[in-house]
Write a structure and sequence with these properties.
Structural class: alpha/beta
Bound molecules: ligand DCS
Strand order of the largest sheet: 2-8-7-6-5-3-4
Distance between the termini: 62 Å
Strand content: 5-15%
Helix content: 40-55%
Largest sheet: 7 strands, mixed
Number of strands: 14
């Protein structure tokens, strides 16, 4: 009998091919262990509130009032909510067409898109047009929409950093396109060498691939590096020469833990370069409410801004967005608040600054504790997390460990991460889920566990790792080093 469309063997092959390691084998095993009652530290997803980060007070007050507008009519509302939160809730409600329960325009509420454009203008010092900003359900949906427009078939290629966040590899395979890797240099603090880009493009072309776009993740996930202005210029020049759309994933722009290289947007560098580059390079920049000190992952709010995209294409992207009717409206309010937080002099300003600074400063200390912790372990080397939310140590696995993994039918870093999980409850993602050079192994953890738990977590990691290394380094249970 012929299989039915949703029988496994007859599914769309692109669906079966697509891999997403952040919720892969390790995550499934961790969930099982949790059900059995074991304490699991979920460091596999950059999901700050799930690890205890408290939401910022002001945005939650505003959205609470928007969700329950009858509270605004309660004579006691002023006892529970500060006046600036009440004013903001009224402001956002006035931007909707029927409150949070009504669909918005498929591009998002015009009033919020205007606030996003004003934020970009303040940040970059260049005009931004609300008509070229679309609000999305998290940055993920925006990335998928744009890749969908770019990829026409298997011979269309997208340059993606390796290691990369698997949203890109997964979506490219789902859409039936080709991922063209460019390698980040671990020994250069995960820097990007433009010569590698040229080589990657030449190689893809010789295989019949038309390279159409390039992705950068700045600050990097999983690698944590912050791109320098000089590097961004080289990248934009390269995109200009090769006629590539640049997809600038800037979701971690608030998460910066060093002072030498503050975040600088691709849009600003592009505009600074002047014509012809600033008029030619097609750029899509992505942002989210999931990261930074907001960490509002569950709200699913994001936006993308289009630069140098022809109006007819913008219309097509609008048409496709319309199929899904409307992005989440509550999340749009979070986005509005993220791009226009309380101002100096507002009642909620001091508290907002105290809360957001507290989170960022703690993340900076945690980034340091993790990097130092990993570097104190046997056969582990780790670059400092300059930005984003992750640590990505290299694990130098002894030959015997690789052999043991082979016998267990596991990829070596999966084998290591599973053992780590069983021994310590720390749930990580193996480096193979992000891509890495042949024969080199990593794992990714977030830097998000509570600061006070961090020393204990790193001690338990070190104990596991050093025992693992001793076990596999020779046949006698002691180290040769
Ligand atoms: N881009 C990058 C680089 C990301 O790391 C993520 C999420 C996204 C986009 C999408 O986020 P939103 O859709 O929530 O806006 N990062 C995942 C990760 O690696 N761990 O947690 C989620």
């Amino acid at each position: 009998m012929a299989p039915k469309a949703l029988d496994y063997e007859s599914l769309n092959e692109n669906v079966k091919k697509c891999q997403y390691a952040v919720r892969g084998e390790l995550y499934l095993r961790a969930s099982e262990l949790q059900k059995e009652g074991k304490k699991i530290i979920f460091t596999n997803v950059g999901n700050p509130h799930a690890l205890g980060q408290k939401p910022l007070t002001f945005p939650r007050q505003v959205v609470a009032l928007c969700q329950a507008p009858f509270l605004l009519d309660d004579p006691n509302v002023g006892m529970l909510f500060p006046a600036d939160a009440i004013a903001r809730a009224k402001h956002y409600l006035s931007l909707t067409s029927g409150g949070l329960g009504a669909y918005s325009d498929s591009r998002g509420l015009p009033g919020v898109r205007k606030e996003v454009a004003e934020f970009i203008e303040r940040r970059d010092g260049y005009p931004s047009d609300p008509e070229l900003i679309f609000l999305t359900d998290g940055a993920s949906k925006g990335v998928m929409q744009i890749l969908n427009c770019i990829i026409r078939g298997q011979s269309d290629g997208v340059l993606v950093p390796v290691p990369q966040y698997p949203l890109y590899s997964a979506t490219i395979s789902l859409l039936g396109g080709s991922l063209v890797p460019y390698y980040l240099e671990e020994t250069e603090n995960w820097g990007l060498d433009v010569n590698n880009l040229r080589e990657s493009v030449a190689k893809a072309r010789s295989n019949g691939i038309t390279v159409r776009a390039m992705v950068i993740i700045n600050p990097g996930n999983p690698t944590g590096q912050c791109l320098s202005e000089a590097n961004l210029r080289e990248i934009l020049k390269f995109c200009y020469e090769e006629k590539l759309v640049l997809m600038g994933d800037e979701v971690y722009q608030q998460n910066i833990y060093q002072d030498e290289r503050p975040f600088i947007s691709s849009k600003k560098v592009l505009m600074d370069m002047g014509p012809p580059v600033s008029r030619e390079v097609q750029l899509i920049s992505f942002h989210t409410v999931s990261k930074g000190y907001w960490g509002e992952c569950g709200q699913r709010g994001g936006y993308f801004e289009m630069t140098n995209i022809p109006p007819r294409t913008v219309e097509e992207i609008y048409k496709v967005a319309s199929i899904a009717l409307s992005p989440n409206v509550p999340a749009q309010i979070f986005m509005g608040l993220m791009v226009s937080p309380p101002n100096p002099g507002d009642i909620s300003y001091e508290q907002f600054i105290r809360e957001s600074k507290g989170i960022l400063e703690s993340l900076r200390r945690r980034a340091r504790i993790m990097t130092d912790g990993f570097n104190s372990c046997k056969n582990v080397v780790c670059n400092f997390t300059e930005g984003a939310m992750y640590s990505f140590p290299q694990i130098k696995l002894p030959a015997r460990a690789i052999e043991a993994a082979r016998q267990a039918g596991k990829v070596p870093d999966v084998f290591y991460c599973l053992k780590l999980l069983e021994a310590t409850g720390i749930s990580t993602v193996p480096g193979s889920g992000f891509g890495q050079k042949e024969g080199v192994f990593h794992l990714r953890t977030t830097i998000l566990p509570a600061e006070e738990e961090m020393p204990e977590i790193m001690d338990s990691f070190k104990k596991f790792n050093d025992e693992f290394m001793s076990q596999y380094e020779d046949n006698f249970g002691y180290s040769r080093m």
